[in-house]
Amino acid sequence: MEPIRDHLREDLDILFVGFNPSLRSGETGHHFANPHNRFWTILHRAGLTERKYSSEEDASLLNIGYGLTNIVARPTRNAEEITKEEYDEGRERLKKKISLYKPRIVCFVGKGVYQQYSGRKKVPWGMQAESIVPGVLDFVAPSSSGLVRMKIDEIIAIYKELPQYIHEGKER
Length: 172
Description:
There is one protein chain. By secondary structure, the protein is an alpha/beta fold. It has a single domain (about 15-170), classed as Uracil-DNA glycosylase-like domain (Uracil-DNA Glycosylase, subunit E, 3-Layer(aba) Sandwich), CATH 3.40.470.10. It is about 35% helix and about 15% strand. The chain is built from six helices and five strands. It has a five-stranded mixed sheet, sandwiched between helices. One of its GO terms (molecular function) is uracil DNA N-glycosylase activity. It holds the Pfam family UDG.
């Protein structure tokens, strides 16, 4: 299975970063394609998109200022299959992408993604006090996986914080 394509450009409001593609995403070539993944519902219900997009429309998020990538490119059944070496390589690649494209905000879709990226153990939800790449805000949100035990309304409430930071990032 081939890694799925990143959707990146300069001047993004938000770059969403997941662990890695699911097997379904690897099969379809689209981000967050697993039918049990709630990413597209969360974006819409949090007011980040005016309608619920489908995974097949992932590239069109660029038109509204959002990008998509993963810390590890290889599709797997679950994040437990990702090796330490893949995280180490992915962390460095991700830092380079963020430094090159300079999105206003990087939203890590899962606390574990940010822990792997930052090397920090204690990570609160929401905006981080200190970012890894200077000039880019780091935001940690719950994973959109259907396996997450948080109630969807609690997850959506965290994602609803993002718009205020988009505005703040544009003022910088």
